[in-house]
Amino acid sequence: MWTLTRGLERVGAGNPIYDSQHPLKALGNLAAIPNEGIYLFKDLHRYLGEADVVRKLQDLARPFARDRRALVLAAPQITLPPELEKITAFFRLDLPTEHELKILAKNVVKNLSQHHKITVALSSDEFDRLVEGMKGLTLVEAERALTRAVIEDLALTLKDLDIILETKRALLEKDGVLEYLPAEEGMGEIGGLENLKRWLAKRKKAFTPEAKRFGIPAPRGIILLGVQGCGKSMAAKAVAREWELPLLTMEPGRLYDKYVGESDKNLEKALKTAERMAPCVLMIDEIEKGFAYVGSSEADAGLSKRIFGRLLGWLQERKASVFVVATSNQIEALPPELIRKGRFDEIFFIDLPRHDERKEIFRAHLKKRKRDPAAFDLEALAHASEGFSGAEIEQAVVSALYTAFAHGDDLHTPLVLDEMKATRPLSVTRHEEVAALRAWAQDRTVPA
Questions:
Q1: Residue 311 belongs to a domain
Q2: 123 is in which domain, residue-wise?
């Protein structure tokens, strides 16, 4: 084995070969060793940009193949020069399996129990859920996270899953392609959307070990189509809160890079990161902005086609429990192969809120701002807000709060009504577009 600090040494012997730290000298020593063997080089990938090192590796290739010797380069990431690609076999080591993580978890508890009194308060299914939460971590990362969780209170409970998820969040921030968002509101805080709520409630336990044993496949994802401001993004976030899963967001625009090949790498990194965080919810907000129909466009030398094709393949073939929630305002801009069944389970249409739903939205926003909804005429507010989206209703409440504060008054119904009278909702200013979207969705989607 060779490392930059110790040089070349036989594993277990403990005495490195003198003056073999430099890679060229280490490779020269290999040429003089005729014995069959496997030679592990841990730091050599840092020198693959040097011509003399690459040449030496080429020189060793033929005698190594003849004498049953092998040179193994170990690295977290490696880019081989063209001269070495054809004489090299590339292997990517998989992350630990659930079985390996379960053994690790048991060993961590066993080892810590030798020095501390550890309480394990987990049922068999809860232990499986904790182990599933560690999926995507390396053995070292999982051991560190689990040790920290147990040492904090000398107990292993389901609450320790939060510490494991915190470790995953920290890793996510380093990558910078996806963003982790706290899921602050559940479906209970969102007015209306009864069909969507029932659909989600039926699948809430689909990610549990019991569901696996029952033979239920994990749900794949949904598209939320709707008028702007009607709560698509809020509903997507609420899915994660309702299912108690981490919420990741992908902004399609952030994938594209000015340098050749970087955009493909960014998408690949984003998809692998989502799989590492599984089970999780991945929200792709306004998916049409990054993955719209580009079949006739050659302006970007085929980049959009490659990105789109890779996403399609991943949506179809992924094995990890990543539930994708894509939001869209212009679904006609998306190609049919993206929205067909198999890649997404269902398309829900979030329409402008009905009268009773507007009452619930007013009630929710008044409560959020520490006002008693019973002190307001919700019937009058719901009637006056015909054609308003949820976001426009919220803005009317916020604007009325500013007015009340400026006048030294408290918030009351007439102030909110005045704010709505001074506003023209999107359903009026963009009437044709909203009407066309609602007509398209009528027979093609499921009302949320």
A1: yes
A2: 98-175
